[in-house]
Design brief:
Largest sheet: 2 strands, antiparallel
Radius of gyration: 22 Å
Number of strands: 2
Helix content: 55-70%
Number of helices: 12
Distance between the termini: 62 Å
């Protein structure tokens, strides 16, 4: 089993290295066509992995499909494992859309130039993979030892969905973020961007470069007085810190959501990874169109409540709908998301007619 994990993590790292080291080696503004193309690549990889899941669990490769899944008490066959993986992938992918709303707000607050946004997202997602891997490991261990934690997760998801549905909080200034204030206390921060650098040294060549090519104005203005050669953080670093902190908050919702579907660590981790890997390209594809999907957030809230209810009633659902009730759950989730998108498009068309 250890070789399976090593192989999968190695594949993910190779894809990330290819992404940053080859295709995005030079900073550039990611256009819609490029974003849609990469979104298609990541989605295709995520869906194609379900075929590996199906055959691996059917043939018990690396010992897969031999343990009882704590969520529904079943030993996962190839079919049930593939359905759970796809359901988890769809749930995590849809919840990541809500994350895109917040990332767009963060980039707006810090005025991060479009040419450097991909770099922030790349390192932000790498950090998110590490954090979620740790949280999944802890969560799987807790569920294996204390099955009743599933009911706490279920209730938490229902409350979170209700909060999303009925409470509309305003945008918070990221400069008031606890992590940002803590960082500012211990590190001086430049007032301007310095290319794609997260860290520069006072008086260095990098610290004298502006955000735009050809801008050679010196800019060592920081919060407080620093000596030449001191380490300075840039606003790009602050944006990265807030993105990481935001993903940690979102993971508190998304990790229980996937554990509502399966407690199999491999299914949980792989569905999370493939959903997160496509977040950067999805951001650049959707960031300019988020306001057109006004009912998508409502749909996501309903999805969380449905998944939470499923976690609380898994035993009863299995007795009523049979062992393949997860397939029905997948259909329900897809229907809710499709309804949110369709209602948004219809509302936009109605508004356009009224304006015309």
């Amino acid at each position: 089993m250890i070789w399976l994990w090593i192989g999968f993590i190695g594949f993910v790292l190779a894809m990330l290295a290819l992404d940053l080291g080859v295709f995005h080696r030079k900073a550039h503004v990611v256009q819609m066509k490029e974003a849609l193309g990469w979104s298609g690549v990541w989605i295709a990889l995520g869906l194609a992995f379900s075929f590996f899941i199906y055959h691996a669990y059917n043939a018990h490769w690396f010992g897969l499909g031999t343990a009882v899944d704590a969520v529904d008490g079943l030993v996962n066959s190839g079919r049930t494992a593939a359905i759970k993986y796809l359901t988890g992938y769809v749930v995590e992918k849809s919840l990541s859309v809500d994350n895109i709303f917040v990332i767009a707000m963060i980039f707006g607050f810090f005025a991060v130039p479009a040419i450097y946004q991909h770099r922030v997202l790349f390192w932000g997602i790498l950090g998110a993979l590490v954090m979620r891997g740790a949280m999944i490991g802890v969560g799987a261990a807790l569920i294996a030892k204390f099955h009743w934690i599933l009911y706490i997760f279920g209730g938490f998801l229902i409350l979170t969905g209700a909060k999303m549905l009925f409470m509309h909080g305003g945008a918070e200034d990221p400069n008031r973020n606890v992590m940002v204030r803590l960082v500012r206390r211990f590190f001086p921060v430049t007032e301007r961007f310095h290319g794609q650098h997260f860290i520069v040294r006072a008086g260095s060549a990098a610290s004298r470069k502006g955000v735009l090519p050809g801008d050679d104005e010196a800019d060592d203005t920081v919060v407080g007085s620093v000596k030449k050669g001191a380490v300075l953080l840039t606003p790009l670093a602050l944006a990265l810190i807030v993105v990481e902190a935001t993903d940690l908050i979102f993971a508190v919702d998304s990790i229980p959501a996937i554990f509502a579907i399966t407690a199999d660590p491999f299914l949980v981790f792989t569905s999370n990874v493939f959903a997160i890997l496509g977040l950067r390209s999805l951001y650049f594809a959707l960031a300019g169109m988020l306001d057109k999907f006004r009912y998508l957030k409502v749909a996501l809230a309903v999805v969380l409540m449905v998944v939470g209810a499923k976690m609380l009633t898994a035993t009863w659902l299995k007795s009523v709908l049979g062992d393949h009730f997860n397939f029905i759950l997948l259909g329900v989730i897809l229907s809710i998301l499709a309804a949110g998108i369709l209602l948004s498009l219809l509302a936009n068309r109605r508004d356009a007619r009224r304006a015309g």
